[in-house]
C-alpha cells in the first residue's frame, strides 16, 4: 500500500519477504487440495509482506461474541497469540506466527483466508482552484464557489496519518477518533497528509463541505508507515463507531490486499460511503487496493486544464476524476499553516466532500444511491487523456434535489348533526373552513464561501 500522493507527496517503499511453505499435516493437505491452484497464504509473495505477521479472516459474518470465541479457540489450537481483533468490518484477528502456523490456520474450516500482513512506508517527497472547479461545468474558472448546504449534520472520517484538530480552518469541528498505532502520538498528525486531506473535505476556507464534522482515524505513523493490520483496525473502528450519515476517506493504497478490500466492502455495506484514491503509479487502478473495491468510489486526479495528471492511475476501476494537482489546504506547523500538495490523495477528499454535501440533503441515502447520484451528476467528456478504460467523468457537485412542498389536504366539511325535531328550532349545520395547504420551503443554512455565487 501507499499514500496516494505524487512526488511532492507520499510514496511507498516495501521490503520483500519470501515465505517458505513446509509440509502440512495430512488433514490440512486434504482441505487445501480443494483448490490447489489458489495461493495458500494470500499476498505471501508480495514485496510488501511483513515477516512473521498475518491477518486471519474468519468465514462468514459471525457476531462479535462468536468472533471473540472463535479467535480464542483458533489461537489456542494453533498456539498463536492474538495481537488485535476485528469485529465490525472483517471478522478475525492479527497475530505473529510462523508460515507453518499460518498454513495450518488457513486449512481450518472456520477460517475464510489468511493473508500476510502488508507493510506501508511513505515519505514526504480566490477559493482554491480545486473547489472552484467542482461547482462549474466548463473552464475557465470563475473564481467563485458556493454550496447550498455546508453538511453540518454529516461526519467525515479520514483514515490517514491523523489530524491537527487545532488548525483554525476546522473551526472546532475536528476531533480525533482513534489511533491504531500505539506510539504515543494519540491521533495527532505529525506528517501533514491526513490534515491536508481533512482540510479539503471540511475546512472553512479550503473545504468542500464547510461545516461537516471531521474525525481523524490515525493508521499511519510519523514516517508514513503502517500495515494492513493498522489500516484494517481503522476501518474496523469506523465501521463500529461512525455517526451517520457518514463518509470515509482513504487517500492511501497499495498492491493487492484482499483483507483490506473485504474490510472496506463490509464497511460500505454497513451504510458508510467511501471515497478512495486511485493511486499514483500511472497504471491500472485495478491492481491497487482498496481502489479496486467496487463498492467504494475510486478517484483519479486532474490538473487545472482538466487533463489527467501524469501520475494518476486510470482504468475501469476508476469511477471519476477530481482536482488533484497543486491543491492548497491545511498544514500542521501552526494553526494558520497551509501546504500545497498533489496526488490522487488530494483529488479524493474533493469527492468525499461532495458526498458529505449530498448526504446532508439526503441523509437516508445508501452508499449505492450516493455513488449513483455522484456519477450521474459528473461532467462527461471533460477529462483530457483519461487513460485506457477510464470513464470520462469529472466531479461536479450534485445539484440539490428540489424540495417538493408537502401539501395539507383540504379539511372535509363536517356538518353538525340535525337534532331530533322538537319545539327547538333545527340547528343549521356549520361548516369547518377548508384548510389552506401549507408549504415547506428550504432556505440556505447561512454558510457562505469566500466568494459566493448561486449554484446551478
From TrEMBL:
Keywords attached to this entry: Hydrolase, Protease, Serine protease, Signal
Any one GO molecular function term: serine-type endopeptidase activity
Signal sequence range: 1-28
CDD domains: Peptidases_S8_PCSK9_ProteinaseK_like
Gene3D superfamilies: Peptidase S8 propeptide/proteinase inhibitor I9 (3.30.70.80), Peptidase S8/S53 domain (3.40.50.200)
GO process terms (BP): proteolysis
InterPro entries in alphabetical order: PCSK9_ProteinaseK-like (IPR034193), Peptidase_S8/S53_dom (IPR000209), Peptidase_S8/S53_dom_sf (IPR036852), Peptidase_S8_Asp-AS (IPR023827), Peptidase_S8_His-AS (IPR022398), Peptidase_S8_Ser-AS (IPR023828), Peptidase_S8_subtilisin-like (IPR050131), Peptidase_S8_subtilisin-rel (IPR015500)
Peptidase S8/S53 domain span: 158-381
Region (Disordered): 381-456
Catalytic machinery residues: 160 (charge relay system), 193 (charge relay system), 345 (charge relay system)
Entry similarity comment: Belongs to the peptidase S8 family.
Name used for this protein in its record: Subtilisin family serine protease
Organism per entry: Kribbella italica
